[in-house]
Amino acid sequence: MSDVVRRSELVRTEGRNQDLTALERGIFVDGTVEPVAGETLTITNPATGETVGRATNADAAAVDRAVRSAHAAQGDWARRGYADRGAVLHAGAEALLEHVEELIGGLVAEQGKTVREARIELRKAADTLEHYAGLAKEVRAAYVHGLDPGVDGRVLRKPLGVVAAIVPWNFPTTLLSNKLGPALVCGNTVVAKPADTTPFTTLRLAEILTEAGLPPGVLNVVTGTGAEAGEALVTHPLTRKIAFTGSTPTGERVMALAAKGTKRVTLELGGSDPMIICDDADLKKAASAAAMGRFYNCGQACLAIKRVYVFESVADEVIEAIAGKARRLRLGLGTDENVQIGPMHTERQRAIMEDQIARTLSGGGAVVAGGGRPDDERLQHGWFHEPTVVVDPPHGSPMAREEVFGPALPIWRVKDFDQAIRLANDSPFGLGSSVWTASLDRAERAAAEIDTGYTWINSPTKVYDELPFGGVGGSGYGKEHGSEAFDYYTDQKSVVVKRAT
Ligand code: NAD
What we know:
Helix content is about 40%, strand content about 20%. It is of the alpha/beta class. It folds into two domains: about 5-270 and about 475-490, Aldehyde Dehydrogenase, Chain A, domain 1; about 275-465, Aldehyde Dehydrogenase, Chain A, domain 2 (3-Layer(aba) Sandwich). Strands 15-16-17-14-13-18-19 form a seven-stranded mixed sheet, sandwiched between helices. Helix 3 crosses helix 7. The chain is globular and about 75 Å long. The protein binds nicotinamide-adenine-dinucleotide. Nicotinamide-adenine-dinucleotide binds near residues 196 and 403.
């Protein structure tokens, strides 16, 4: 049993175990977790402030080794064929499912989420890998017969080579599996970089997938900071594609760096998703979806509901329903199975959100739920914040214009649907949106007129592997999920054949 497994179990069963400082993990190259080396990152439990362990803070030389290993492994992996790669991915998905309970403790300890959220995340990560394992035999490209007399054309899909998969800390495993699925099925190899605060679950995930049959080098993991390991990965001459999920400013930086070498880039960036609740909606369900959509994962989701627009005539009822849910959420240590909302991920994230709320309220708006840090003595060592609801702040304020990455929801009263659509679109972001209404016309207008990559109609904001996912505007570009993702992990080459007769 590996060290990380034992530690994960300790975290799960004992919660505030003090002995976690012994957890030390280096980078994962050629199928092996190396000993911790060079500079290290100290990983802190967001709920308790305790040290979880130390990981290597990879420098450019370490990244170079990981990329070269992936490059060396790519030819053989690509030659194996789709069905074979799909079978390996299937075995990896099964192995991950078998290890879900083991991985929960580590994810809760390093990320701060609740046990329930960690379980859902890990199962979803396995599900996505399984989805792409199934799609492996379905990858298609075009064929045109008779372009000219005796001339046929066809399209070859070729893997890109080494893919750099860079992900943030909010869903370390699902965000990675979104990239691993299509990248690996298409014959690419991957060097993954988790956030510098969440290295351990990713390292263990890579070990599990490799034990299940992924050849050494096909998936390597470098742990480290964005400025050093991240940039070394993006600028490495042998990385051909950067699959990036993170904030909009970092995405812009990554895009600029990737220009040298004309690398492919997909950017899954920040969001400020609007929800419109009309007077003819099922108000109870809409309020539940708003609260769930906003406070899940302590509000730290790209697709969280970050703005609500509710028709004036039903506003009081909806606001009280959402605020009531916010007040009733059980805040606490993620290791407690009864807890519904854990801490924010870092002290810095909490400080950013508190500043956004303060700057917003200085211009107007009323706090109707939460508003500050909890008094509970047991929660003073972590980065907790009460689920907070603010009503009618100015629409030019930070809570409307910026991405609020934590448990705080602004709600605006609107007079009609036109105003709701206008305000929904009044944002630099374009990731997701949702509308609650009984009117087909309003639902279709929302789908057509809100500038986002996803629109949910009378539905919680669940993401489906079957549908392409990706934002517009400041939320980035390119698609993950769906068979559309294959276009972002392959080059399409046209081949023309002229027959002699
Ligand atoms: P971030 O941009 O700071 O970091 C994301 C990743 O990029 C980390 O691994 C980080 O180390 C790395 N990184 C940082 N600087 C880098 C650089 N110069 N070069 C290369 N890599 C670098 O993101 P964050 O603030 O930690 O994460 C939260 C953000 O991610 C939010 O904006 C959220 O909306 C977004 N997000 C988007 C999606 C999506 O699918 N659209 C999903 C989850 C999170």
